[in-house]
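[RESIDUES AND BACKBONE]
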Amino acid sequence: MANTRSSQIRITVNLDEKNMPTGIDWDADDRTDGNDPVACKAMLLSLFERNTLDTMKIDLWSTDMQVNEMDRFVFQTLRGMADSYFKATQNRELAVDMQRFVQYFGEKTGIIEQKS
C-alpha cells in the first residue's frame, strides 16, 4: 500500500441574525503564506460525487459584496474554469469557446476593455 497523507481545508462562514453571510474565512493545513485565516467575500464550491456522479454546489457571498466585485469574481472564476477544463481534457476547441465567452463577459461587465 502506498503512503498517503491528508490535508484539511477549513471554511468558516460568519452569519448575521438572518443567517446571511457577513464574512467568509478559509484556511488550510498546507498554506505557506501565513498563519491567520484568509478573509473572503464570496466562494463557489463544487464537488463531483464519486458514486452518484452528481455535482454538489455551495455558492455564498457576503452581504457587503458589491456588484462590480461579483462581476470580477465570476470573470476570474470562468477564466479559471476554462483553463482547468483544458488541462483536464486537452479539448482545445471547447476551451477556446469558453475563453471567448469569458472575453465577452469581461467586456460586457467592464472588467476588461472591449476589443476594437
